[in-house]
Write a structure and sequence with these properties.
Low-confidence stretches: 5-41, 98-146
Bound molecules: zinc ion
Distance between the termini: 33 Å
Shape: globular
Number of helices: 11
Number of strands: 9
Mean pLDDT: 77
């Protein structure tokens, strides 16, 4: 049996890895909507870094799609991926398209960046869980969106194995296009329905072969292997609804509301979440592996799921030993 595809230790968010100071002005210009950006052809310098972060997210989404396509999970134009922008980045993107006044939280954020070494775009991600969120709770000049209100998502009709950053469109939580040249995926509402109700930061939807096959027959993927605990245990199969419909979007969001990181769509495909885009991709790979495992096991007989007690025992050991992370050798081995 091949080893599970999941890396033992998920990598942290790396939205800033493509950013550079030299590229900020270009990124800011690229992200300013042609329809609304003429009055702000030169966004404030302090917004450029966050705009560059948004551009790096577009690059990350393109690379994630290339990876999933290479692994056989994304085929042709079938499937899509998205990332919810961090609050500071979302603010800057939106401010760049309208006459908003600078909010005190923008100033505070910029001051923090200038005071420490984390002045790359990656620092935006680390701030999103703390100070920035708190600041967003206060009054913010219109038309700044609510926290987490901007999503970068793949364009409809794009060949995902060849997706370019330009084929990633920025929308708000109502689906209004903020920046980009291409119409977003037809499953836009599926993504937005999750972002409106759950704290997910990234979503991957595939028509991966094994995941899709499973959802054509069965109603729930049981836990055959303890690695499935990463996905929240058993993976439900959402009843069939046509793609792009509010019924499908509601059913998917509801199936994920109990903390699941994955769900299968009957006679359609799969959806996975992540706190980072990398996690959502890894979860898609893990789900596909788990479905393949079930299908292989079923050729030998009736698959034997882990009992709740066995699952709890695994969790207890994992917590005790720190399973899933690297550890330095003891000194006597050095
Ligand atoms: Zn689909």
């Amino acid at each position: 049996m091949p080893a599970p595809p999941r890396s033992e230790h998920p990598e942290p968010a790396s939205y800033g890895e493509h950013s550079s100071v030299a590229g900020e002005a270009q990124a800011a210009a690229a992200l300013t909507s042609p329809a609304t950006g003429s009055e702000h052809a030169h966004p404030r310098p302090e917004s450029a870094r966050a705009l560059a972060t948004a551009e790096s997210v577009r690059i990350d989404i393109a690379e994630a799609c290339h990876r999933l396509a290479a692994a056989g999970l994304l085929i042709g134009t079938a499937g899509n991926a998205s990332v919810r922008l961090d609050d500071a980045c979302a603010r800057a993107v939106t401010i760049g398209r309208g006459p908003a006044e600078e909010h005190p939280s923008d100033i505070a954020t910029n001051e923090r960046r200038s005071n420490g070494p984390d002045t790359d775009a990656g620092s935006v991600g680390r701030e999103s869980g703390g100070t920035v969120d708190r600041e967003c709770a206060g009054p913010i000049a219109s038309p700044t969106p609510p926290c987490g209100g901007v999503v970068a998502i793949t364009a409809t009709g794009a060949v995902l194995a060849e997706l370019t950053p330009e084929q990633v469109t920025l929308v708000d939580l109502d689906g209004t296009v903020i920046a980009g040249e291409f119409a977003p995926t037809s499953e836009l509402q599926l993504h937005l329905g999750i972002y409106r109700t759950l704290p997910a930061k990234a979503i991957v939807h595939t028509h991966a072969p094994k995941s899709t096959a499973f959802g054509c027959v069965l109603d729930e993927l049981p836990v055959l292997h303890y690695q499935q605990l990463v996905l929240g245990g058993e993976t439900p199969v959402v009843p069939f609804h046509p793609f792009g419909t509010p019924e499908l979007a509601a059913a998917v969001a509801n199936s994920l509301s109990t903390g699941k990181q994955a769900t299968l769509l009957a006679n359609h495909g799969a959806v996975t979440l992540g706190a980072t885009l990398n996690q959502a991709v890894e979860n898609a790979l893990l789900l596909e592996w788990a479905c393949a495992l079930y299908l292989d096991a079923a050729t030998l007989g009736t698959p034997r799921p882990l009992t709740p007690e066995q699952q709890q025992a695994v969790i207890a050991i994992a917590l005790t030993t720190g399973y899933g992370s690297t550890k330095p050798l003891a000194k006597e081995h050095e």
